[in-house]
Amino acid sequence: MSRVIERRREILAEMRRATIDKGYFTIPEIAERCYLPRSTLQDWVTRLLDEGCILQKEERHGRHPATFAARSVLPVSACRRIFTTVDGDRVECYHECLSSGCAAFCEYHHKRAGGALVHVQRDGTLLRECGVLTESEVEIGLSPKPAAGIAAIRREGDEIVQTIRCIGGPAYSLTDQMAEAEGVCSVTAHKTDGIIEGEVRTRALVHIGIGIDDTDSPEGGATFALALALLQHLSTGEGIIPIGHRVAMLKPDLPERTTGNSCSYIEFAAEPDSLSEIEERAQRFVSSEALSPEWGIAVRQGFRILPELSAYGIRARSEAVSEEEARAVAAESGVHLFGGRGVIGALAAVALRGMPNRVLLDPYAKVERGAS
């Protein structure tokens, strides 16, 4: 994200917060909150006054500083984070919203519009869209037409550019809010025949998934809890964006299981050269925190479905799989394994990535693959 855009977002957020709390703010107050010199904050105030984002309430009188107020106490952005990962000619676009209602709105209209997208899925406030590096016509308009759609996705160097066409509320989001979201490098937009078309630029990151299993023991612990702790731990790294955590049930009657035989999967977006560092940090963390000496983790870069890997995950839901089989499939699929017997379930967690919770949590459910 552009440092200027990020700084603007931080300053406006503090100005709005002060306006809500007491009806105004002063330059010394915001400078202190944002750890900026007063002269720098004065430049920002001048700029935001010119843009119409804030207004001056009172001029300076003697030792009393001038007071200002934010023009609107609407959220700076309903878009919390927008980021993208790339795997070959496929791109996964992640859009985390302030509201599940907004995310559901975009899910509905983006699905209907089609365009460059091949799969759209919503997890609460997180919208996950899988698309192709291509350009496609999307017909946007008032009902019954879709109100928003992704017309094109392209790569330019280390950036992904999404071309979005929209009308109404989505147009306001594109022109006034998306630029404030974490992960966005820039947004440009123009209006043609009542339709807003804009380009949203984000970093071309890589997708990294980690499967975890056999970290607990009959005396205590839980793999899901350690997985969540690992998710938080790795998210502190530079350029690493957490995506989420899933639990998957494997063959429920294996004699080696601790209780129900579940494994965990966590995923991140990261800079292309960060895989080795993530693997090293994950190994250190799990080896020091696991209660079982048989802990195992599986690390994969990329999100595209690989037939042999997928078949392994499906088999692990209903059959006993050996550690040797797991290591052979991992080697062929480019998945890195670390640890002991737990790599069997850890690899299965990676292999089952993308399946809905109703399938992941029921080992007897029929498997239906998505389009990633």
Automatic annotation (TrEMBL):
Pfam families: TiaS_TCKD. It comes from Methanofollis liminatans DSM 4140. The lineage of its organism: Archaea, Methanobacteriati, Methanobacteriota, Stenosarchaea group, Methanomicrobia. Residues 210-269 form the TiaS-like TCKD domain. This is TiaS-like TCKD domain-containing protein. InterPro entries: TiaS-like_TCKD.
